[in-house]
Amino acid sequence: MENKNNVTVFILLGLSQNKNIEILCFVLFLFCYVAIWVGNLLIIISVMCSPLMNQPMYFFLNCLSLSDLCYTSTVTPKLMADLLAERKTISYSNCMTQLFILHFLGGVEIFILTGMAYDRYVAICKPLHYTVIMSRERCHAIITACCTGALIHSASQFLLTIFLPFCGPNEIDHYFCDVYPLLKLACTDTYRIGLLVVVNSGLIALMTFVILMVSYFLILYTLRAYPAESRSKALSTCSSHVTVVVLFFVPVLFIYIRPATTFPEDKVFALFYTIIAPMFNPLIYTLRNMEMKNAMKKMWYHHLFWEGK
Question: Where is this protein primarily located (predicted)?
């Protein structure tokens, strides 16, 4: 591999070459990153310190928040540091590591969203069997399957990229290492590899998105027979899930469903699933979820009350 690869460092072109815009972006992303940590930690602590942890939906939400924190931390700190740096570089080994971790955590997130949709489907369409089907063992098995599927996906992306020869240009027109920008720099024909990437990323994302939409359509169809109060509560929960799914999947599909080509807009769309979605997930899941809001109030009021004493 070393014989074919003369590149040891990549230069990241980032979001902009204008220093004023970079400073503005730094302030904006710093706010977003703090909000991501505060919001997701709030959910994790509130769920783990309350009886909600025993409910499958909140068990998955807890895992999603942890995944969000890890996922955005793979990209955002490096992005913010580069916004203030004169020269934005990343070593070859760090680039490959970032690519592997990013796709692994992204895969985990996609599959957890699928697990959450399955949980809502069973809760609404098969309520009498819900406690049996969604046992704690089943929930752990689903999370294990999510991690295994994500590992297979990420390892495939990594293997498609690690053996590419880089012997010339080393400027990546992005703010992190991803497959398509790297394929553009490889000094070999990458057409077939590009098709494999479409299958491994684009088609998986598309199939998952279709499955999620079909499951929520079935849920909505089943809700017609529910009483108004129960229907309203279920609709509120499902609408939150659908919002998160759309916010995450639409940008992913825009980038990965097409053949190995890159557009300037890719960097903007990538912000949606690397920063914006992890920031809005806690808001979406808490503002429209009375159980979550009550759990937060009880826990934090309890702590403030005892601290006050």
Answer: membrane
Longest dimension (CA), the chain: 70
Q: Where are the extended beta strands (E) located within the chain?
A: 9-12, 89-91, 171-172
- At a CB cut-off of 8 Å and minimum separation 6, what does 303 contact? none
Give rounded-to-5 percent helix, strand, coil for the chain: 80, 5, 20
- The candidate with the shortest Cα–Cα distance to 155, out of 172, 139, 179, 185, is 179
Describe the strand order of the beta sheet including 9-12 as a list of residue ranges: 89-91, 9-12, 171-172
Note the pLDDT tens digit of each residue in 47-104: 888 788 888 988 999 999 999 999 999 999 999 999 998 889 999 999 999 999 999 9
pTM, two decimals, is 0.89
CA distance 159 to 149: 15
Query: Residue 3 class from Cβ within 10 Å (0-12 exposed, 13-18 middle, 19+ buried)?
Result: exposed
The three-state secondary structure class of 224 is: coil
Cα separation of 29 and 291, whole Å?
30
Q: How far apart are CA 89 and CA 172, in angstroms?
A: 10
Provide the residue type at 225 as one letter. Answer: A
Question: Phi-psi bin for 162: left (phi > 0), alpha (psi -120 to 50), beta?
Answer: alpha
User: How many angstroms separate the CA atoms of 51 and 49, rounded?
Assistant: 7
Distance of CA 301 to the CA centre of its chain: 31
Write down the residue that tokens 């591999």 correspond to: 1
- What is the rounded distance in angstroms from the CA atom of residue 197 to the CA atom of residue 214? 25
Taking CA atoms, 123 is separated from 57, 91, 133, in Å, by 9, 47, 9
